[in-house]
């Protein structure tokens, strides 16, 4: 059974002593972490809406507006409650599969 | 009832997430630019050396072509959101190549309670450039230089690096009271210099950060460190 311990969640502080921070990409988007900032992952992450144009930082007043968007709420829910449907890179980096 | 629980959990996860990302325990990673003159063999930039019709090159080139220097007002949004250490650590670029890098330093100085780290391996024009950059560097900013070995060996991985200028820039920074860290990734070609590097760091009071990496590609298999200096899973860091 797939299990994720996302390093971007506060529970990682207890496990590893830190919370993996979000990443700002050279194309102006915020991503959950730098492990997801790769050209080969764009297509997969687009399915979660993370590259929707409205989520570019320049199109928002604050980072909070982006992280509070419906796309992000859904994404956070998936990595916490529905790990089978999380991006493959999340499974590789924060999951119990290699 | 069940749906309420699901929604409740989702809201709880989201609140947790936001609070965590805003806290001092989080460390956002910022790609300030898309430029770098180095050709480190494990960097995404090596994809640009593939044949033009290679899909990996096409998708990476698309990313580079649609990249831009981070607008200062966008950086300000990040700074105002988080209390964590903000790392200017490129996935494929070097932060000092942001077209308005001195404006970045000016912004950092405006937020003395926030912390910033500049991860840089690529040399800038000359030592005068660093002198000017340091004059704009506030106490809440740390410069972490990637010098993987000593001057003679670091460019074996950091291809095109003017390692002498990087070393001089590190010493100048220390002289001027700037926070300077030395990041040293262990490869086969620099294993024999670890102790000398550690002594030099101690002599000049530079924080020394040794890295055992688990990253390897067909191009770097020959230079990967021997077992005792290699991480088997995820990167390991050692601090002096």
The gyration radius over C-alpha positions of chain A equals 13 Å
> What helical percentage do the residues of chain A reach?
25-40%
Which quaternary structure do these chains form? heterodimer
> Which structural class fits the helix and strand makeup of chain A?
mainly alpha
Structure notes:
The complex is a heterodimer of chains A (98) and B (240). Chain A is mainly alpha-helical and 98 residues long. Chain A has 5 helices and 2 strands; from the N terminus they run αββαααα. Chain A has helices at 11-16, 42-46, 63-67, 70-81, 88-94, and strands at 19-24, 30-31. In chain A, strands 1-2 form a two-stranded antiparallel sheet. In chain A, strand 1 (19-24) and strand 2 (30-31) form a beta hairpin. Chain A is globular. Chain A starts with 10 loop residues before the first helix and ends with a helix. The mean pLDDT of chain A is 94. Chain B is an alpha/beta fold. Helix content of chain B is 35%, strand content 15%. Chain B has 7 helices and 7 strands, in the order H-E-H-H-E-H-E-H-E-H-E-H-E-E. Chain B has a 6-stranded mixed sheet. In chain B, strand 5 (179-185), helix 7 (194-203) and strand 6 (207-212) form a beta-alpha-beta unit. In chain B, helix 5 runs parallel beside helix 6. The longest helix of chain B is centred in the first third of the chain and has 21 residues, at 2-22. Classes of the chains: A mainly alpha (98), B alpha/beta (240). The A-B interface holds A 8-11, 13, 18-28, 33-34, 37-40, 42, 57-58, 60-64, 67-68, 72-73, 76-77, 80-81 and B 6, 9-10, 13-14, 16-21, 23, 25-31, 33-34, 44, 47, 56, 59-60, 62-64, 66-68, 70-71, 74, 77-78, 80-82, 84, 87, 89, 91-93. Strand 1 of chain A pairs parallel with strand 1 of chain B.
């Amino acid at each position: 059974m797939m299990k994720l311990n996302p390093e971007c969640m506060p529970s990682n502080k207890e496990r590893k002593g830190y919370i993996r921070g979000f990443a700002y990409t050279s194309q102006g988007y915020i991503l959950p972490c730098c492990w997801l900032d790769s050209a080969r992952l764009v297509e997969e992450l687009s399915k979660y809406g993370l590259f929707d144009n409205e989520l570019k930082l320049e199109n928002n007043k604050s980072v909070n507006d982006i992280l509070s968007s419906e796309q992000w709420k859904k994404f956070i829910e998936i990595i916490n409650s529905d790990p089978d449907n999380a991006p493959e890179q999340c499974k590789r980096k924060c999951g119990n599969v290699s | 009832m069940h749906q309420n629980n699901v929604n409740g959990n989702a809201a709880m996860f989201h609140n947790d997430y936001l609070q965590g990302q805003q806290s001092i325990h989080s460390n956002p990673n910022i790609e300030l630019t898309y430029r770098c003159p180095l050709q480190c063999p494990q960097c995404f930039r090596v994809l640009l050396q593939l044949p033009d019709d290679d899909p990996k090159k096409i998708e990476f080139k698309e990313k580079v072509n649609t990249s831009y220097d981070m607008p200062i007002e966008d950086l300000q949004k990040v700074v105002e959101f988080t209390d964590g250490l903000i790392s200017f650590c490129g996935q494929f670029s070097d932060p000092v190549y942001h077209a308005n890098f001195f404006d970045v330093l000016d912004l950092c100085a405006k937020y003395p309670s926030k912390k910033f780290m500049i991860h840089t391996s690529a040399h800038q024009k000359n030592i005068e450039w660093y002198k000017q950059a340091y004059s704009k560097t506030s106490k809440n900013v740390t410069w972490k230089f990637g010098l993987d070995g000593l001057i003679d060996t670091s460019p074996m991985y950091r291809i095109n690096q003017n390692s002498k200028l990087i070393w001089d820039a590190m010493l100048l920074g220390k002289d001027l009271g700037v926070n300077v860290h030395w990041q040293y990734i262990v490869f086969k070609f620099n294993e024999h210099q670890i102790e000398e590097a550690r002594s030099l760091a101690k002599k000049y009071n530079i924080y020394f950060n040794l890295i055992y990496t688990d990253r390897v590609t067909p191009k770097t298999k020959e230079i990967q460190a021997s077992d005792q200096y290699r991480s088997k899973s995820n990167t390991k860091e050692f601090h002096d």
